[in-house]
């Protein structure tokens, strides 16, 4: 293809869509062709995202018809969905159907939960509504990019933000048989993890200066983590997960604890993590305790581990909107188009967010 590859983003006014637009503004091979919005078609993108005004001074939100037109006219476009679960699958299905009829072949990365399951029944058990496009589930693979070498489907489902951090920290040790498959996880997320719309439990005045857990041991993304970990490591593990709302806007920190199966020490566990992530430019393994500020707004993940008395604690910090959503999705899209996996993603964290 001559010139940049057109990229289209669904869920246009949302936080993840805004982060995708920010990343695409500096991408060497993709160019943002449309941000689709159901609620604000025709409105200036800079009105919803003033921080992107210099990158998109004239761009307006597109309608579904506009987006369908772009996908049907472009032999291969990049389609990102940052729409909510329950909305995303049907939208993607309609757009891929129209593209197929026009003879074009968009590649999709869905950041919602809609294509993370292998069956519509499993999805419905968790999300309590029918799946929007069950016939397309087999076209998607759900994985963290660092944990799958060969992709065999045309499209990808991003595993999500908490899931990315938990999988980065646990899969290498499960695969190496270093830990028992019963894993205790505590995680803290920033407020952008709840999306753009303020609701009572996640509103700033409540979160500011506070720290509290929610959905303890019942978080709905745990079955997705279990399935991805099984696919990547061959081990079925139990994750006892307690998420927390943190008093900051961006970032996730997770702490995993598990019993060691042998007598490994900290150096050996760190060595296993380093060996697994060798050649993975976005993952840094070190003896330093990961800090959210060192990765916030970047596609990097920082990992560390400590062993004491037969227990290992693995620590991981990522940015929820970037590595945990838009950045991880762009990393996959780079691979879907045969581009360097790092294209447009190597800017370091600002450090003082
Ligand atoms: N926030 C995170 O850290 C994070 C991390 C990983 C994955 N995700 C997933 O990424 C997706 C987007 O998350 P987000 O945080 O960007 O959410 P958000 O801020 O709430 O934005 C979602 C956008 O989707 C669009 N939308 C279309 N139909 C909708 C409907 N029926 N109800 C509500 N919104 C609708 C809206 O944009 P328009 O009206 O402009 O179309 C809305 O602004 C979700 O599936 C989420 O689970 C989020």
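Sequence proposed for the structure above (353 residues):
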């Amino acid at each position: 293809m001559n010139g940049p590859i057109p990229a289209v983003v669904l869920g246009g006014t949302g936080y993840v869509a805004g982060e995708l637009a920010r990343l695409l503004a500096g991408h060497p091979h993709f160019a943002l062709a449309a941000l689709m919005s159901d609620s604000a078609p025709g409105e200036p993108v800079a009105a919803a995202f003033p921080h992107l005004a210099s990158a998109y001074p004239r761009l307006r939100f597109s309608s579904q018809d506009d987006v369908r037109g772009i996908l049907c006219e472009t032999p291969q476009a990049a389609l990102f969905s940052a729409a909510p679960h329950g909305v995303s699958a049907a939208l993607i299905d309609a757009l891929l159907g129209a593209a197929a009829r026009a003879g074009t072949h968009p590649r999709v990365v869905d950041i919602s939960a809609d294509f993370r399951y292998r069956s519509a029944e499993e999805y419905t058990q968790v999300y309590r509504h029918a799946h929007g496009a069950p016939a397309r589930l087999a076209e998607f693979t759900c994985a963290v990019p660092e944990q799958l070498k060969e992709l065999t489907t045309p499209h990808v489902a991003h595993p999500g933000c908490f899931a990315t951090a938990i999988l980065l920290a646990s899969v290498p040790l499960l695969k190496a048989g270093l830990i028992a498959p019963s894993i205790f996880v505590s995680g803290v997320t920033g407020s952008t993890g709840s999306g753009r719309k303020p609701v009572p439990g996640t509103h700033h005045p409540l979160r500011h200066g506070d720290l509290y857990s929610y959905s303890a041991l019942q978080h709905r993304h745990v079955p997705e983590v279990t399935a991805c970990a099984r696919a990547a490591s061959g081990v079925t593990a139990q994750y006892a997960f307690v998420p927390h709302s943190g008093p900051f806007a961006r970032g996730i920190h997770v702490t995993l604890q598990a019993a060691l199966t042998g007598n490994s020490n900290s150096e050996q566990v760190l060595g296993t993590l380093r060996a697994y992530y060798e050649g993975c430019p976005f993952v840094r393994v070190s003896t330093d305790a990961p800090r959210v500020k060192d990765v916030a707004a970047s596609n990097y993940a920082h990992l560390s581990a400590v062993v004491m008395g037969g227990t290992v604690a693995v620590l991981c910090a990522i940015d929820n909107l970037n590595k945990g959503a838009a950045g991880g999705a762009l990393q996959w899209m780079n691979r879907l188009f045969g581009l360097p996996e790092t294209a447009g993603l190597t800017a370091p964290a600002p450090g003082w967010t």
